[in-house]
Amino acid sequence: MTDCYYNGTDLGCTMDHGCTYFRIWAPYASTVTLNLYRDDQALLPFRRIPMHADVEGTWVCQDAIPSHTFYTYTIDTKETQDPYSKAVGCNGRRSMVVDLSETNPEGFATDRGPTLLQPVDAIICETSILDATGDFSSMAKHPGKYLGLAEDGLCTADGTPCGLDYFKSLGVTHVQLMPIYDFGSIDESKDPITYPANYNWGYDPVNYMTPEGSFSTNPSDGAVRIRELKTMIQAFHQAGIGVVMDVVFNHTYSLDSCFQKSAPDYFYRKDGDTYSDGSACGNEIASERPMVRKYILDCLCYWLKEFHLDGFRFDLMGCLDLETMQCVNDTLRKLRPDILLYGEGWLGGDSVLPESKRAIKAQLSTIDGIGAFSDDIRDGIRGNVFYDETYGFVGGAPDTENDIRFSVVGACPHPQVDYKTYAYSPRGAWAKSPNRVINYVSCHDNMTLWDRISFSRKDASLADRLAMNRLAACIVFTSQGVPFFLHGEERLRSKHFSDNSFNLPLEENSIKYELLPQEKDMLEFYRKLIAFRKAMPEFHMTDGDGIRKRLRFIEKLNKPSVVAFYVDDLLVVYNASKKSVSIPVEREGIYATYLHGERVDTVPLEQRILHATDAITVQPLSCFVARREDSYEN
User: Fold this and answer.
1) 344 is a catalytic site residue
2) pLDDT(634) > 50
């Protein structure tokens, strides 16, 4: 591999005082030519400009090239778009010269997302640009587009908010957007609304620094993509909601990429003559190599500064090396200290990257600031993701109480969790702070929560399955860590038991805003649960020491399918059994109940004086939360 390392900030195309500069890193090239096109579909370039070899494997040229001119590079015999493209034409085949100052909507210069005191104060909802407004029921003027999610005042005939207003009404602090960079699996010349089979989640990157064209009103104009995405982000920020971007640095759409054409085999890991496949997608990015690491950092800094994003979620983060992720944390927090940074702490397959260097959840405690999804809480609550018939704690699975304890303490060490019998994470507690733990029971992968409950507990009544759904949500929102859920979980979203709907038609994936009565009831429960979570500081602890000191499980309870604990004066009970259970009162006082069964609120549902001889009855398949508000005199 080459030792050439270019540390400059001018890779790609930049414009300055009427002059346009081009610089590409192509360290193995003998010749590089800049090709200029009048549009993104022209058959031949109208001009070719030889580029000159410069420092550290880069090639350069400059000329008075106006904005909206399309360009490619021919590196020896292969033509490619610019790896540092800021704008591209339809389907990303050609880069476009763009004056970024012309892409800002009015007021964008002062735009900023909400500020977080701590990550545990976040409540994150994952959504897709296309899913969120692609269905006719969203009433969007620009369905399935960036602008569709920027529209205010959308609602169904019965008044159910849609799109952006839906997220505002939910009370979430952040949305996590499934891929919005330019990806390769959708033909941008065919609008997914008109051609609903032209659908894909987009976990197949082509141009990392440019917005996806199928979500814009004009995919042939790279500046339109940028402006419309900025407009959408600004609308979320004006609503007080942060925006997290899903990034996929573990692989590319194919090996016929701009990276492979500009520096053959440098950007990819190989095992002998074959390409390593830790992503399970046919290739794997070599993040540990200096110019790949630089590219990742440059890309993230560009998105953060140019689009005002509030966080990044890293797909299959275990394919990335720990040193790169530490650099990500250090670099981005200098720009925005409260940025959210987290990812999937695992791989999709085996990798030639040594295990000791992988950014997997068990090793994140060796670096700073990067969080990970807790598959522990997901599978403990709903059943192992790889075995659809398993049903986890809420479904009544035996001997899962210790699994729930592990998750309640945010995967941090705790003396009342039995790590010897906890086999799911063999190394035991993997977090030092709940700030770095993302708790969830549904995301875009695998069955939705409602589908999984309905599939694994098909023998249960509808009322019991609804109760299981509520209990699953309650555990996520009352555990230490950052709560996260898939858009639609809160209204019983179904994909007809699809375990992987990444390329199924839009109809299978889109959010339907016209709700059945039971869906409306669940939506209202989630709204109140979110508000309740925000109002309870006991669920916002920020360090493992505090959890060990302040959170105590009730040991003498010893009831199957029941977990009960105190956080300071807050009593929390999860009853996954089909019978009511009696919880002994350990601390006398005036107890105010905030959550029980189908009811939850930020003000007490009821208040009772309880003595040491009393017991609290908790309904079957339900969560109970009460606070000892004050002691009293006998």
Assistant:
1) yes
2) no
